[in-house]
Amino acid sequence: MCGIAGICLSDPDAVVPEDLLRAMTGVLEHRGPDGEGFLLKNNIGLGHRRLSIIDLEGGDQPIYNENGRIGIVFNGEIYNYLELMDDLKRRGHQFATHSDTEVIVHLYEELGPRCVDHLRGMFSFAVWDGRDNSVFLARDRLGIKPLFYTIRDDRFLFASELKALIQDTTIPREVDEATLVEYLSFGYVPGDRCILKGIEKVPPGCTLTWRNHQTHLRQYWDVGFPDDANEGQHDRVEELQEVLGDAMRLHLRADVPVGVLLSGGVDSATMVALASQYTSAPIKTFSVGFEQQEYNELKVARLSAQRYQTQHHEIIVTDRDLSVLEKIVWHLDEPFADPSALPTYYVCREAARHVKVCLTGDGADEVFAGYTRYRIARSYEKVDRIPSWGRRGLFGTAAALMPQIMWGKGLLTRLSASGARRYLHMIGIFSESECATMLAGHPRMSREKLTRILDPFFDVNGRSALTALQHADQKTYLPDDILVKADRMSMQNSLEVRPPFLDHEVVEFANACPPGIKIDQNVSKAVLKNAMRDLIPKPVIDRKKSGFGLPIKDWFRGGLEPFARDMLLAPSTRCTAFFDRKAVKRIVTGHQFGMRDLSRRIWSLLVFEQWCRSYGV
Questions:
Q1: How far is 605 from 599, CA to CA, in rounded Å?
Q2: Looking at the predicted structure, is the pLDDT value of residue 233 above 60?
Q3: Is 2 a catalytic residue?
Q4: pTM of the prediction?
Q5: What is the topology classification, in CATH, of domain 2-219?
Q6: Strands 199-201 and 148-151
C-alpha cells in the first residue's frame, strides 16, 4: 500500500517543478514510510511513497518495462499477480522484480488501457507511456483506493489524497458551496465531486488518460444487478463458500504477516474463520470497545478469537480520545461525518504496532444486505402497493400535522415517500427542512439535486426495494463513506487493510443472488450466515445487527459538551460562515437539554469546523 502523486504540464518543452512534486509526495509519507521514488520526464513527473508488502527487496517504484519506455507508480495490491505474471512470461515479457506492480507495467504494454479488465485487486495507479508521452490513471472497481485530480490552466495534477494536491499554492482553497447540502445530508461529498472547487475524484471503475493536455475518462466496470436476480429462490450456499474461499486465498498473499480487524459481527468473524483455514500460524486479531456496555462488542468478538486461538488484542476508546480529532480530520481530506472513524483510527493504530496488513469485513453489509434499512424496505413492500399519491395524502398529511419530536413522525414520513426521497429519509443526518434552515444564507441550495443523484438506482421497472437500496449504497455510501474511512484511518497509521468481501467476483456473485436469500424470514445476510454457520460461534451468527456505534449521545451531554460549545459557538468559529449561527446554537443546546438525540448533527458540525481550521478555509 502506498501513495502516488503526479504533475503533467501542457507545454511539452516545460520541466516539472521537482520541489512541488517532492512536496506533494512528501505529504503522503504516512501512506508509504518505507521509501520514495520519482519519475521525471521533462513535462511529466510522477512521485511515489512505498509501504512494502510484496517483494520487500525489489519492489521500489517507479518500475519500468524492459526498454524503459513505460513506467508506473502504484497504490494497492493485485491479488492475482502471480497468475498474470506466469501468463506474461509465456508471452515473452521479462521481469526484473517479483512484485505485483511490475505485472501492471507489462500488462499495459501488452493490452494498453484494457489491462484493468484483468486486474483482481484494489488499486489506483499512474502509467507513463513514453511512446506518446501520455499518462494513464486507473482506479479499482469498487473505489477502495482513492484518486484525486485537478486541471489547471497549464497543468494536470493528481494524487492519492487531497492534501497532496493543495501543496500547489495556486489552487484556491475555496469551498464548492453546492456540496454543502450533500455534506449535511450524507455526511460526506458523494461521487466525483470534491468539497474544494476545481478538484475531482476519478470515479470507481474508471480510467483517465491525459495526453497533450486533453483528458479522457472511461468507465470499464460498474456495479450491476442482473434482471433475473429477482427470480428463483434456489440455494447458493455452496457456491458462496467457494467464491469466498477463493477470494480469501488471494487476499492472504503477502510477504509480511496478515491480521484481522475483529468486531462482534458476522463479517469480521468470517474473515477470522476463513483466514484460519489458509494459514498455519495463529492469526493476530484486533478489537476496539467502549466503557458504555451497550456499545461494547469486545465480549462477543472474543468468542471468535477464542474459537480460532488468535493472538488477540483489545483497546478501549473514551471521550478523552477525541483529542485526536484534529489529526483525524486532516487525514480524512474532506469533511467526513461518520463518527466511527474515531474507533477505526485507534484499532488501526493498535494493529499497526504488530502487523502491516489486516483483513476487514467491510462491504459485507452492502453486498449481502446487512443493514436494518434493508429489512425495513422489505417490510414496506406491502404499503408500496398503495399508489404514491395515496401514500402522500394519507401518511404525509399525518406526518405534517405531528410535532417535530413526536414518536412516529419519521416512520410516517418514510411511508409517504418513495424511491430516492425515502432513501434520504433513512440515511440523512439533517432532514430536508433542517438543511434549509442550516443553509438559510444560501437560498438556491436544495435537496432536489440529491434525488437526481439517487433516482437512477430507484427508477427501474420491476426492481425490488432491496435491490434499489443496495445499488444506491454500493454506488454512494460504500465508496464515499465506508471505504474512505477504512483507507484514511489505516493509511494514517501506515497499515494496509484488505476487504475480501469487495473482491469484484464476490460482489458480482452476491448481486446476482435473489433478494429472498439475502433477507430470509426477516434475517439479514441470510445466505452469508448459512454459508458460515458451521465456522462461526452461534452467538455471533444469531446476534442482532448493532453497527459500529459510538456513545456520542452521552459524550455530548457529558464531558464533551463544553468542547462542542466552545468549538461551534465561539466568536472565531469558521463553520458559521456557511451555516446559520442560530441554527447551530439550537442544535447544541437542544441536544443538551432536549429529548431528541442530535449527536450526529453535532458531530457533523464539529468535523466541518475542524476541517475549516485544518485546511485554512
A1: 10
A2: no
A3: yes
A4: 0.93
A5: Glutamine Phosphoribosylpyrophosphate, subunit 1, domain 1 (3.60.20)
A6: antiparallel
